[in-house]
Design brief:
Number of domains: 1
CATH topology: Rossmann fold
Number of helices: 8
Helix content: 40-55%
Distance between the termini: 33 Å
Length: 249
């Protein structure tokens, strides 16, 4: 059990990568706070995990909601040793002048501001508990951007770079911080990322840019997160970890 007796918070855990991470962590012994804006989805995942999993409905872009998530986790499960900032949104893949200000604000609020809120809420309690691990789900979009997703790319570039800076600043508190950078994945956001209908033909165009010949899957991201959250990675901090089938080579 690589996360035995650990407490983890996973955001955006009502589906996709977050669901995969939450379930993988639970399999390895962690008690998990399943956080999602969609309360019914969070409840489903927590119910399927069973054991010590709890569901918390929250808007990760709102500081008051984030503070409540941490408080409720501490009260019901204990002090979190692992935080996974996975919740994310995108604007549709489209020409830059068609992206609205509301689209921009939402992407940065969920993909970047949420990290700000969760670091402020969790880092002090992790410090007082002897340390911890923060994983931010960035993206290969922040390393090798595709056209049509400029502001999403920029938000993930911010998440990637913030992870490196946080790693240095929080190291004295024994908190490790890393970014996981998935390539385009088989999740509910896929059609928005592609900007065209999700057909086998359209998928093939994007898969052709990935040397290993497929998109990422929740299990791929979950396994990477498990390693980085475990004691096996105790000397790894400040990395942008591509889980991309060779896309960024």
């Amino acid at each position: 059990m690589r996360l035995n007796n650990k407490v983890a918070i996973v955001t955006g855990a009502g589906g996709g990568f977050g669901e995969g991470i939450a379930k993988r962590f639970a399999e390895e012994g962690a008690a998990v706070a399943v956080v999602d804006l969609r309360g019914d989805a969070a409840e489903r995942v927590a119910r399927e995990i069973g054991g010590k999993a709890i569901a918390i409905t929250a808007d990760v872009s709102a500081g008051s909601d984030v503070a409540r998530v941490v408080d409720e986790t501490v009260k019901r499960l204990g002090t979190p040793q692992v935080l996974v900032n996975n919740a994310g949104v995108t604007h549709k893949n489209q020409p830059i002048m068609q992206v609205t200000e509301a689209d921009f604000d939402r992407v940065f609020a969920v993909n970047v501001k949420s990290i700000f809120h969760f670091v402020r809420a969790t880092a002090p309690v992790m410090r007082d508990n002897g340390g911890g691990v923060i994983l931010n789900v960035g993206s290969t979009a922040g390393l090798r951007p595709r056209p049509g997703l400029t502001w999403y790319n920029a938000s993930k570039g911010a998440a990637n770079l913030a992870s490196k800076s946080l790693a240095v600043e929080l190291a004295p508190w024994k908190i490790r911080v890393n970014a996981i950078c998935p390539v385009m994945g088989e999740t509910g956001l896929l059609e928005a990322f592609m900007g065209v209908p999700d057909t086998p033909e359209n998928r093939a165009r994007f898969v052709a840019t990935i040397p290993l010949g497929r998109m990422s899957r929740p299990a791929d991201i979950a396994n990477a997160a498990l390693y980085l959250a475990s004691d096996e990675a105790e000397f790894i901090t400040g990395v942008e970890f591509p889980v991309d089938g060779g896309r960024t080579v």
